[in-house]
Structure formats: C-alpha cells, structure tokens
Amino acid sequence: MMKLLEKRTSVSAGEFPKLVKANWPIGKVTLYDDRFIISAGFEEYTLLFTDIDYLDIKVGQLNFYHHNPNIIKDISLNGFLIPGIIRKAITQYNLQVLVK
Q1: For the stretch 14-33, what's the b/e string if a residue is b when 16 or more beta carbons lie within 10 angstroms of its beta carbon?
Q2: pLDDT tens-digit readout, 27-59
Q3: Cα–Cα distance for residue pair 77/43, rounded to 1 Å
Q4: pLDDT classification of 13: cutoffs 50, 70, 90
Q5: Please, are residues 52 and 66 in contact by the beta-carbon 8 Å criterion?
Q6: Are 64 and 16 in contact (CB under 8 A)?
Q7: Per-residue H/E/C for 25-46
Q8: CA 31 – CA 10 distance, rounded (Å)
Q9: 80 DSSP assignment
Q10: pLDDT band for position 15 (cuts 50, 70, 90)
Q11: Helices then strands (H, E): number in the chain?
C-alpha cells in the first residue's frame, strides 16, 4: 500500500440523524494505490477501490458511490479544488477507479 496523495478538505458523511461533517482543515482524504481513507474528525472511512462503484465528480464536490455494507453510504468531499486534484491523481497514477 503506497500513499499517493494527502489533502485537507471538507467531508460530509451519512444523512440525518447520523450526519458527520468535518470542515477544512479538520477533514482529510488520503489516496493510496488501492484505497481512499476519508477522515472526518473522529470518524474515518476506508474505501477500497474494489468497493467503489464510481466517483461522481462535480464542481466543488466529489461523491463516493460504493457497495461496502460496513461503511456509511453517503460520503462526499467538498472544496473548490479537491475534485480536480483527485481526478488528476487518478489519471496520473492510472488508478482503477471509475469516474463519472
């Protein structure tokens, strides 16, 4: 497992009543060659590439769509630059993650 990228960002996970939010600089995403680790303060989520159906990249937001039943469903990264940074890293390192 090799670390490729680590960035501070805002993170939202879950939905009411179990909603976790961590604004920049508390939230963090770490990209490895086989997984994402998303940290939202006291909560942390590890998504293997094999668990991810696709990433939905929009302006200022990146949404994770996955099928791991042990991890909260709705996870997003929010920030003006973070979607482009993640997209560029996926392309640069030829990572096996589908981006829509």
Answers
A1: eeeeeebebeeeebbbbbbe
A2: 999 999 999 999 998 899 999 999 999 999 999
A3: 14
A4: very high
A5: yes
A6: no
A7: CCEEEEEECCEEEEEECCEEEE
A8: 15
A9: S
A10: confident
A11: 1, 9
User: Residues 6 or more apart from 78 whose CB is under 8 A from it?
Assistant: 9, 10, 11, 12, 60, 61, 62
CB 44 within 8 A of CB 63: no
Rounded to the nearest 10 degrees, how much is the dihedral formed by the CA atoms of 45, 14, 86, 28?
-60
Of 43, 36, 85, residue with least CA distance to 60: 85
Contact 83, 59 (CB under 8 A): yes
